[in-house]
Amino acid sequence: MDLLLPMLLSLQQLDDKLSDFGQKKQEIPERIQSMQQAFEEEKKQLEDHQQGLKDASLKQRQLEKRLQESAEDRKTKQKKLLEVKTNEEYKALLKEIEYAKQADSATEDEILAVFEEIDALEKTIKEQEKSIRESENKLKEETLRLEREVVEVDKEHQILQGERKKVAAELDPAVLGDYEKIRSKRAGQAVVMVRKEVCPGCHMQVPPQTINEVLQTGEIRHCQYCRRILYCELEETA
């Protein structure tokens, strides 16, 4: 077998590696962005809980003020009990005082519920603040690591591109053009290694005669179904 098919196989292998490196170069910024988005969402959750704590604290003050105003109002009504002149007025004031006590009891229950809400929010916020500090440190470390990885991937990518240019320059332009044409149509796979008389590109049977021609002459033969370039080696028999 002459060097043509091995060169094409080498070119395919280089293109496969270049494709992998290109994918890594694209994925790394996406991973960084994904981590940053997750961190921003975590911060947003903390901000929501902090706002919830502010709202709950405001509600607590409003309820306590309502309770205080109600207590002052009941004191005033208690004093009026000594001033009323009729039994009907006395009963009416007593009823108002009783209603006020019931309302105050409900307000106290609300205040208790708000206290519990505030306590839960304070604990959650404390835990989230700790988590965010850890996440921020992790984000910085991982971002630096991925940025260094981008540099290394880029270096390897450039080296591979140089190797590819050398191999491509040694090929006949017509052969290279045929390779590129097939590669563009077949998801980057122009050359395939035949295994057990099957084309791995389309999984169709390759005629034994075609395999023999490739093995004996080293000339380019295409899969009759997908048109990929076939590379064959003698397979060991058990």
Can I get a quick summary?
The chain has 238 residues and is mainly alpha-helical. The protein has two domains: 152 residues, Helix Hairpins (Orthogonal Bundle); 67 residues, no CATH class. 77% of the residues lie in helices and 3% in strands.
The termini sit apart by 24 Å
Instruction: Tell me the domain tally.
Output: 2
**Strand segment count:** 2
* Class per helix and strand makeup: mainly alpha
CATH secondary-structure class of the largest domain: Mainly Alpha
Sheet-strand content, in percent, reads: under 5%
**Rg (C-alpha, Å):** 40 Å
Strand order of the largest sheet: 1-2
CATH topology of the largest domain: Helix Hairpins
Structure description:
α1 packs antiparallel against α2. The protein is built from four helices and two strands. The model has no long low-confidence stretch (mean pLDDT 94). The protein has two domains: 152 residues, Helix Hairpins; 67 residues, no CATH class. The longest helix is centred in the middle third of the chain and has 83 residues. A two-stranded parallel sheet has the order 1-2. The chain has 238 residues and is mostly helical. The two termini are 24 Å apart.
